[in-house]
Amino acid sequence: MSAISQRALSIRPFIVMDVVARARELEASGRDIVHLEIGDPDFSTPEVIVRAAEAAMDAGDTGYTQSLGLPGLREAVTLRAREDYGVSVDPNTVVVTQGTSPAMLLLFGSLLDPGDEVIMPDPCYPAYPNYVNFLGGVPVSVRVRAEDGFRFRIDEVERAITPRTKAIMVNSPSNPTGGVLGEADLRHLAALAERHGIWLASDEIYHGLQFEGRPRSVLEFTDRAFVLNGFSKAYAMTGWRLGYLIAPPEFVRPAEKIQQNFFLCASNFVQVAGTTALLEAQDDVARMRSVYDERRRYLVPALREVGLTVATKPLGAFYVFADATAWGRDSVALAGRLLEEAGVAAAPGVDFGPGGEGFLRFSYATSMERLHEGVSRLAGWASANGSGG
Ligand SMILES: Cc1ncc(COP(=O)(O)O)c(C=O)c1O
């Protein structure tokens, strides 16, 4: 018997990190690698946010804060909810965390007993099934397909509901697919949640980065919802570690107890800077969004041109999830070959679930110049391997 806990053994490794490690090795040996594998914005954090953090540090905002977070930040979250979605959120239901990732622990930790099920898309962000497994819950995958824009088919979601179902996980715009759920999708999912007495858990971290239509929050459609959000993507703040959970009132105290015991609080001056982000950096978000959009408009046709299939245009986040079966069915092997032979790093689709096998995820959180270079290398590789578009 292994000395290592089942809980730790149940966490699947993130293969893209092996791609990153191998890319770094190749770089150390002098190779130039085009990085299209990582979901980390290439922008620096907007000036106004950086200045706010500096001022907060100068002012001595360096001690613990309330576990629930600074009142000003929780108020700013409610202001954004009102302005962006026209919904009223009680600031007492906002729990500030050190990123969206710990907010997942608060959410699933306060919701799940062993054996409880959470429905989620396949492919999806791999932390969802890992958190659910870690807490003794059961992730239940519902396939989403390229031809549907990677949106749930509502009848399939409904068929997956059992007496043990606690929640349906949604993530729009989505990592890895860039898919977006529209008003009708969210309305149907909200109706399902209400009809079955279960919850929607919505990861809205890519909301600032939707290119067509306005992002819709689940809170516009139901109160039976948890919202996860964070500053990493839209505000280019991945390394700052700040996010929040909006929880139904009865879950706030349980989430607060987890936060108090496991994390104490999010960083004080980072919370001050996050408040400024929500109140004063909307123009910066719009500027970055339009640059990402320009890259998306280049990359989608360019990937089709080199022989990959992008059945529906991604509408948000900064990823293209391309069907690469024309080049190989094993996404890990293919990502390995593209790295070694073409010097292009991409994330293997199977990292995001069995439904992602045969796909590669290309991130366009990198400059247009590097995107051009990456595409030209892919084109060269495809023609050398007899599989050009
Ligand atoms: C869908 C999704 N949710 C959450 C996260 C993690 O965000 P944070 O940096 O706020 O922990 C990521 C990061 O890639 C993501 O893609």
Structure, explained:
The chain has 389 residues and is of the alpha/beta class. The protein folds into two domains: 140 residues, Aspartate Aminotransferase, domain 1 (Alpha-Beta Complex), CATH 3.90.1150.10; 235 residues, Aspartate Aminotransferase, domain 2, CATH 3.40.640.10. The protein is 43% helix and 14% strand. The strands form three sheets. A seven-stranded mixed sheet has the order 2-8-7-6-5-3-4, with helices on both faces. Helix 2 runs parallel beside helix 12 and helix 11 packs parallel to helix 13. The radius of gyration is 21 Å and the shape is globular. It starts with 5 loop residues before the first helix and ends in a 5-residue tail after the last helix. The mean pLDDT is 96. The site of pyridoxal-5'-phosphate (PLP) has 13 residues, from helix 5.
Give a quick precis of the structure.
The protein has 13 helices and 12 strands. The protein is of the alpha/beta class. Residues 39, 99-101, 125, 171, 175, 203, 205, 230, 232, 238, 243 line the site of pyridoxal-5'-phosphate.
Share of helical residues: 40-55%
Structural class: alpha/beta
Low-confidence stretches: none
**In angstroms, what is the radius of gyration?**
21 Å
Instruction: Name the beta content range.
Output: 5-15%
Query: What is the CATH topology descriptor of the largest domain?
Result: Aspartate Aminotransferase, domain 2
| CATH domain class name of the largest domain | Alpha Beta
N-end to C-end Cα span: 51 Å
- What's the arrangement of strands in the largest beta sheet? 2-8-7-6-5-3-4
